[in-house]
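With this grant's support, we have settled on a layout for protein records. A representative record follows, to show the layout.
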Amino acid sequence: MTGNEVVAWGALAAQADIMYGYPITPQNEIMHYWTRLAPKFGKKFLQTEDELSAGFATIGGVLAGKKAFSATAGPGNTLFQEPISMAEMMRIPMVVVIQQRGGPSTATVIYSQQEVNMTTFGGNGEGLRIVYSTATH
């Protein structure tokens, strides 16, 4: 079982209702597994037009009373900083799986461990983020 499969099964175990997402490597497999599992359990998936839409749609899902989540990686993490900051300011719980790429890529940070720094300290304002990561990057 891969880490991406574990994320999909973990979301089911947490009784997530819907995943909003936009395909980006290596996060594609989470969407792939979720779209195969979700219908069997009465869950939903919505592919949005970009990462910003995925983030704001996730907020909308939570505001509508659903257990919603999303996932992204690399440049998508950069774009997700705006909706994550909005959720912080509105005090809305938001679950986003942010996968690290192995090294530098277009429109992303230089070193892979900087994804953790951006996820932890990125965005506007002074919201509270709970970030789980490995001890070594």
Notes: The mean pLDDT is 89.
